[in-house]
Amino acid sequence: MTLAARVLLVGSLLLGGMVAVPAAAQEPAAEVDVVNVAFEPADVTIELGEVVRWTFVEGTHTVTADDGRFDSGTQTSNTTYDVTFNATGTFEYYCRIHSTPDGDRQNGTVTVVDQGEGPVDPEPTEPPATDPPSEPPTDGPLDGTDPVATALAWSARLPDGGATTAFVGTAGGFADSLASGTGQGLLDAPLLLTPRDTLDPRVADELQRLGVTRVIVLGLEAAVSTDVEQALGDVVETVERAGGPSRLETARAVADLVLSDTIPEVLLARAFGEGSAAFADSLGAGALGAAQGMPVLLVGDTVDDGLRTWLVEHGVERITIIGGTAAVPAAVEEDLAATHTVFRAEGPTRTATAASFIGAFPDSVGVAVVEGFGDTAWASGFAAALHAPGGLVLADGGRAALPGDTVEVLFRRGPVICGPTLTTDLCGQATAANGRTNLAEPLMAVMDVDQEVQTDPSTPAASGVARMWRSDAGADALCVDAEVWDLSGPIVAAHVHLAPPGEPGPVAVPVNLEPVAGQDGRVVGCTRGGDEQAAAVAALVADPAAHYLNVHTELNPAGEIRGQVFLPRATSFAALFGANEVPGPGHPDATGSFTLYDTGIADELCYAIEWEGLETPVVGAHIHAGSATESGGVVHPIALGVGSSSARCDGDVDPAVRQAILDDPAGHYANVHTEDFPDGAIRGQLT
Q: Tens of pLDDT along 547-561?
């Protein structure tokens, strides 16, 4: 599933101050075709609350806001992407594949006016003063074994006298805290935890520090005893309970307490499960409920009568199910769809599910990164809801690298708020991802098997393209965003090495490359490494050509694909279509793209190619000399991988041929040949 599809599944949730809605919910006021290397029309004007629809007609593109507030992800032809704009101003966007925020190759604007008034610049949204970008506490992160301390670490972010209401749940389990996020957001009320039978004195002290006068106890006496309730009464003026016989009823009781009688939309999450799976999807949902003021309700394997009645009594129209069918069965969705509009927000993993919510939050405010694995991860995740106005994404403390889904979000959103149980290293990676700094252009590496010194004879024709950035988070930070194809197996390691082409060299900078769900082949990551890595990153930026990027697999532990690092001097692109063939005909439906990079090496051509919709085998591809109306001769062959996407650096190229292509890209075209179209199936002029 593409990123765009995941965003649309969230239904009518806010997307960075905007709304992404299914097409049936609202017709677009403006439509933009994404073709070749252009948006047509590039500039549109709509009224506040209206929809812009981008239709991907040709090639592979993205629709990405300059400030990151919306991003379609990588899309190919025959897909659409809708955004509803709920803020006035002029919003600039570009294609990440073919341009940059400051570029002029594939850029556009959406101007939003309020009922015919002139456009105004959108007011910047500043991060909340109580939630600045964070590193772990100076005395180190908590180990997460004490839920009381974990929740207190979150509430400590509030100033003295900073809350009049607080939720108090049991530290003995997560069940009754599952649905507290909405209340935290609506009442500006932190979640605190205490043992069932005793009011922890740390909690009493925190209630007094915050100036709390009202406490809402989550669950019945089996969760938090009457002794605790009485002890709370000695600290605050008012103590209430929101609870029921099970977590199902408690969630509905919380919603009844903090919301009005009519509730148009709810989030529906898994109620039961083994270990952390029982609450994993609710971590992100809690923050979403807090931001949107929508209740988080719970469901088992079937729709219970209490839930069915509650939905009717409260006039619920839309339900967004949180998680895949392993969490909330398809039978539940089918049952509810008979009487409600039902969406499902999901990802293949818990980290992808949390990341899929991010478009529903305002941008330029804090994104919380919390531990999402382990039986006590719920304490930090649920208590984070009040402190995550820009969304919540997950880390896995059992792994050295942040999940790719989390990194991809942080490339676009921030500032970062590290949870109290997040390790120092993972927090460092998170702040690096959010603070990545574009060079004049990102450093790049085009990787293939042939650049390796030695590989296993059975290695497929794997390849990849990587972009590298420094980060404002620190001089020791390096972030990588890459696409890799046809590897023999999962990536086990990656590094930037110091050596010229054809020679092995020592590791200069370790690189994390973790997959991004729904974006086949895309891997991302950031690393930090102190003073030693800072020196290595500085050397890489100063002399890219002296370094290479190496990707290791189990089959090839010394490296499966490798590419020398370079700062592109120029990039040429061709959108490939059958209609471009001369004399033709070409393939009527297939599309593709070809990108050529100028590495600055006189006898080298590096490139990437991809296509879709070609039914018969591709028998070859070439760069030809000729205008768009000519059939010209071959000047350079394009080496292909085993799949429909590949990249390569060719050495020993005739310098005169290379220079002719770079000097006059418009006088050259890329052509892909198949068995059915031996003279050319899809073709495109370089620009």
A: 999 999 999 999 999
Q: Please list, residue by residue across 473-507, b when 16 or more beta carbons sit within 10 angstroms of its beta carbon and e when fewer do.
A: bbbbbbbbbbbbbbbbeebeebbbbbbeeeeebee
Based on the fold, state whether residues 376 and 360 are members of the same structural domain: yes
Token look-up 């506490």 returns: 137
What are the structure tokens assigned to 563, written together?
Answer: 């590419």
Kindly state whether residues 104 and 165 are assigned to the same domain. no
Distance CA 31, CA 48 (A): 16
Residues 599 and 539 in one domain: no
pLDDT, residue 115, reads 56
Distances (CA, A) of 41 to 69, 98, 366: 21, 17, 34
Query: Is residue 132 in some structural domain?
Result: no
pTM above 0.85, yes or no: no
Q: Which domain holds residue 624?
A: 570-685
Residues of the chain with pLDDT under 70: 1-26, 68, 115-140, 364, 438-440
Same-domain check for residues 380 and 527: no
Nearest to 56 by CA among 95, 23, 86: 95
CATH of the domain at 65: 2.60.40.420
pLDDT of residue 131: 39
Same domain (yes/no): 327, 210 = yes
Instruction: With residue 549 as reference, give the H or E element that holds it.
Output: strand 547-553
| Residue 213: per-residue pLDDT | 97
Last residue of a domain, one of 537, 566, 595: 566
3-state secondary structure of 81: strand
**490 within some domain:** yes
Residues 607 and 664 in one domain: yes
Q: Which residues does residue 547 pair with via DSSP β-bridges, in sequence order?
A: 498
User: Is 61 found in the same domain as 184?
Assistant: no
Residues 607, 469 share a domain: no
DSSP reduced 3-state for 525: strand
Looking at residue 439, what is its pLDDT?
63
Closest CA to 41 of 60, 55, 51: 55
Q: Distance between the two ends of the chain, CA-based, in angstroms?
A: 31
Q: Using DSSP, how many helices (H) and how many strands (E) does the chain show?
A: 15, 39
Is residue 161 in some structural domain? yes
pLDDT of residue 317: 95
Q: Give the C-alpha separation, 207 to 496, whole Å.
A: 50
Over residues 434-455, the pLDDT tens digits come to 988 866 578 999 999 999 999 9
pLDDT score at 125? 31
